[in-house]
Amino acid sequence: MSAVKGRGNLSTELRMVALLRAAGITGWRRGVSLPGKPDFVFRAQKVAVFVDGCFWHGCPRHGRIPKTRVAFWSTKLTLNSARDSKVSRELRATGWTVLRVWECALARRRVAGTAARIARALVQKSAR
């Protein structure tokens, strides 16, 4: 478990950068100071994108609780999920659209759908 990074998973974020560039989606920034520290922010449209790791955020499809220290990991992952929900609520309350993208949604067979979902959110916010 020590090999699993707790934050700043560079390879996942770089896959998202590649997805955005390949889809021609522009206008995003990283490192913007907002609650929860979104991975990608589209300020003009007020869209915040979080790329959530399947392990750390409890992906319903791929998230697994380790077989050792089950109580610790169950609590940890439940608290992570609760924090994610709280951050999303805070941002939505201030007019932001929040997109949470699972790490597994960056797999080759799913990138087109993920890019379309982000583009759709940006178009909807631009139309308002």
Concise summary:
With 128 residues, the chain is of the alpha+beta class. It has one domain: 3-Layer(aba) Sandwich (Endonuclease, Chain A).
Draw up the topology in text.
Blueprint: H1 10-22, E1 40-42, E2 47-52, H2 54-57, H3 70-93, E3 97-102, H4 111-127
Description:
- The structure is a single chain.
- This protein has helices spanning 10-22, 54-57, 70-93, 111-127, and strands at 40-42, 47-52, 97-102.
- It has 128 residues and is an alpha+beta fold.
- The chain has one domain (10-127): Endonuclease, Chain A, CATH 3.40.960.10.
- The protein has a 3-stranded mixed beta sheet, with helices on both faces.
- A hairpin with a 4-residue loop joins strand 1 (40-42) and strand 2.
- The model has no long low-confidence stretch (mean pLDDT 89).
- Summarize model confidence as the mean pLDDT: 89
Number of helices: 4
CATH class: Alpha Beta
The amount of helix comes to: 40-55%
Key features of this structure:
Endonuclease, Chain A, alpha+beta, 12% strand
